[in-house]
């Protein structure tokens, strides 16, 4: 709890300081659609397209929430040390729940007709609570003992929206993140294993209800580094009751607009990262052979967003979490979707229901 309180205090100070310095959301990487509207210059000046379409979900400037996954099974593979010695035999675990705090911020630094520059960051955690079995001692396994201490992500990102004219634009994004089983006492060491990602997209905005872009992205969402094409597609139907908000393959959703204060979404998100497990040093994995958890999951969900008062919005999300990857690897290298390099540990998680509740300060 001390770790949570300290981080929350720093996050609030960061957000407040950033907001005060300005001339003028799920706080996750590659969220290109959530920025301030751009206005037109006077009739004699060059015109630029705006960064939104009509009725797009509101931009989240500050978000604080809780993420919770229900009971599920965890299958852990045979674990060997770097020297080939056996550390743990395969076991089956019943996880009572997985929970964690989530904090995010996204603040426009420059918001002009000709360019928008945004800085942001987020902190996520996953704490695994193992279900006790009365009268039965579970078989020991090194890896699940580490997981009960929690894995965490701290990231900073920056995005630039650069309109070329009133129909075309560029999007640039970069991110640095620290993922692992760290706390404040060893976060400095974890920063030595910082991961980087980014994207470049070129797009068109034919009219106020449609915006699309294509490009390429370097991402860790599949649990390990990948280089893949990306598609941004935001569209609002002529009736303005329905819309689509897509950043494929990261996420996609269909939006139902009941009124400006009540929105309902159905879709999915691919979420993941590669976590440096510092305790892997006990197994002999050090230097270029660091022990890392390749965690990735698909979340199919409904999301309801409601304006509580003014710019304060409540977001309630619920659905099913499907495991994509929960393997352990050694070192950072590019495997891609077709690589055949063996994993140190091949694990599996069964599907689990989940929900996420957050309070958000949104842009005017």
Kindly describe this structure.
By secondary structure, the protein is mostly beta strands. It has a single domain (2-362), classed as monomeric porin ompg (Porin). The protein has 3 helices and 18 strands. It has helices at 2-21, 142-147, 187-190, and strands spanning 60-69, 72-76, 79-80, 86-88, 91-111, 116-130, 151-163, 168-180, 195-207, 210-219, 226-236, 242-248, 251-259, 262-276, 291-309, 312-330, 348-349, 352-362. The strands form 2 sheets. The chain has a 14-stranded antiparallel barrel with strand order 1-5-6-7-8-9-10-11-12-13-14-15-16-18. Strands 3-4 form a two-stranded antiparallel sheet. A hairpin with a 5-residue loop joins strand 3 and strand 4 (86-88). The two termini are 33 Å apart. The model is unreliable at 1-29 and 33-41 (pLDDT under 50).
The CATH topology assignment is Porin
Mean pLDDT: 86
Q: From the 3D coordinates, which CATH architecture would you assign?
A: Beta Barrel
How many helices does DSSP assign? 3
Kindly state the number of beta strands: 18
Order of helices and strands: HEEEEEEHEEHEEEEEEEEEE
């Amino acid at each position: 709890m001390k770790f949570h309180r300290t981080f929350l205090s720093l996050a609030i100070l960061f957000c407040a300081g950033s907001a005060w310095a300005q001339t003028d959301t799920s706080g996750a990487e590659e969220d290109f659609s959530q920025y301030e509207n751009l206005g037109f210059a006077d009739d004699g000046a060059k015109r630029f397209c705006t960064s939104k379409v009509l009725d797009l979900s509101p931009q989240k400037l500050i978000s604080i929430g809780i993420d919770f996954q229900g009971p599920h099974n965890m299958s852990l593979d045979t674990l060997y040390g770097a020297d080939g010695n056996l550390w743990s035999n395969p076991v089956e675990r019943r996880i009572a729940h997985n929970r964690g705090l989530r904090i995010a911020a996204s603040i426009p630094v420059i918001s002009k007709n000709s360019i928008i520059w945004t800085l942001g960051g987020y902190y996520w955690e996953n704490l695994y609570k193992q279900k006790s079995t009365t009268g039965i001692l579970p078989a020991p396994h090194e890896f699940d003992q580490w997981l009960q201490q929690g894995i965490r992500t701290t990231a900073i990102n920056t995005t630039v929206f650069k309109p070329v004219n009133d129909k075309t634009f560029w999007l640039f994004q970069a991110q640095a993140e620290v993922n692992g089983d760290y706390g404040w006492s060893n976060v400095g060491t974890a920063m030595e294993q910082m991961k980087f990602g980014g994207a470049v997209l070129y797009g068109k905005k034919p009219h106020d209800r449609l915006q699309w872009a294509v490009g390429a992205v370097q991402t860790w969402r599949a649990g390990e580094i990948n280089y893949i094409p990306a598609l941004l597609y935001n569209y609002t139907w002529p009736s303005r009751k329905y819309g689509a908000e897509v950043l494929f393959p990261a996420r996609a959703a269909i939006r139902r607009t009941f009124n400006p204060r009540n929105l309902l979404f159905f879709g999915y998100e691919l979420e993941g990262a590669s976590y440096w497990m510092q305790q892997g040093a006990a197994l002999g994995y050090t230097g270029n052979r660091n022990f890392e958890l390749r965690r990735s999951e698909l979340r199919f969900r409904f999301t309801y967003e409601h304006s509580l008062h003014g710019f304060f919005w409540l977001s309630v999300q619920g659905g099913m979490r499907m495991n994509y990857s929960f393997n352990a690897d050694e070192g950072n290298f590019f495997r891609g979707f077709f690589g055949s390099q063996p994993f140190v540990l091949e694990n599996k998680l069964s599907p689990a229901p989940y929900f996420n509740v957050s309070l958000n300060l949104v842009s005017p």
